[in-house]
Amino acid sequence: MNSYEQKREARRERLLARAEKLRAAAQRLSQHASQQAAMIPFGQPILIGHHSERRDRNFRNRISRAFEKAHELDNQANAAASRAAGVGHSGVSSDDPDAVTKLQEQVAELEQRQERMKAANRALRRGDDAALLTQGFSEAQIAKLKQPDFCGRTGFPDYALQNNNANIRRIKQRIEELSKRPTVDTERQVKGVQVIEDAGENRMCLVFPGKPTLDVRKNLRAHGFIWSPTRVAWVRKLNNAARYAAQCVLDALPAE
Predict the structure, then answer these.
(1) Given this model, what pLDDT does residue 193 score?
(2) Splitting the chain (256 residues) into consecutive groups of 10 residues, what average pLDDT does each group show?
(3) Which of 119, 229, 104 is nearest to 171 (CA)?
(4) What's the CA dihedral at 137, 142, 148, 152 to 10 degrees?
(5) How far apart are CA 33 and CA 63, in angstroms?
(6) What's the half-sphere exposure (Cβ side, CA atoms, 13 Å) at 226?
(7) Which is it for the CA torsion 149, 155, 156, 157, positive or negative?
(8) pLDDT at 13
(9) Whether pTM exceeds 0.85
(10) Cα–Cα distance measured from residue 25 to residue 14, given in angstroms and rounded to the nearest whole number
(11) How far apart are the first and last CA of the chain?
(12) DSSP assigned state of 64
């Protein structure tokens, strides 16, 4: 497991821990509200005009707000759990130091699939079931391939081959872009701001000498930068768009 994968697993664990904490808080609050509600006699109405009316209304409102808060916490727990389940399932991240290798494996798999589909179509045109069996298709799969679709097509349709080929080209283009990515960190100073290109972490960092003004902070966020307490810097993913965004932020700063 490389450093990126370790960080990814740590993030998953943090999200799961947060979900568990929120769910426990929701359960405690719901139980407390239920205990409070049980103190009201079943079917007991609010006694309008009675000296207890105001106190009773406030008591019931607190119970209602507690149930609403418990429901809100439970929703937050579900959202955190959902985010944890999605960690690592959104494709190959550019932050992964093994991204190029993993993408190359994807290309190899897609190319193999492309050749298999083409070979299957050739065998179907020849009526060569033995060749299809050799390629690993079961008899049920062969029967399905022979069954015409709504357009009367058999086998793997052209659009399936075209889509697969488009994915191969897209991933190869991404590999080319990642291969050109700088592997050495760079650092420069502009108007008193440290501009750091962290190649290892794949981050563009802007380090200000002090807390930026409100207008500068708004401009940073508008250009996709977020505050990182661990780095003590404003950061975003390193790419050409980040370089352009950083330049826009720096150009808007007053001259030293």
Answers:
(1) 93
(2) 80 92 95 91 84 87 94 94 84 80 93 95 93 92 90 90 95 88 79 89 91 94 94 90 93 84
(3) 104
(4) 60
(5) 5
(6) 7
(7) negative
(8) 92
(9) no
(10) 16
(11) 46
(12) H
Collapsing DSSP to helix, strand or coil, 98 comes out as: coil
* Pick from 196, 246, 250: nearest CA to 225: 246
Residue type at position 162: Q
10 Å CB burial of residue 256 (0-12, 13-18, 19+) is: exposed
For 22, 24, 37, 124, 161, the CA distances from 72, given in Å and listed in that order, are 10, 13, 19, 57, 47
Pairing of the two strands 203-207 and 226-228: unpaired
The pLDDT of residue 171: 95
Domain coordinates of the chain in residue numbers? 3-86, 99-179, 186-252
- How far, rounded to the nearest angstrom, does the alpha carbon of residue 11 sit from its chain's CA centroid? 12
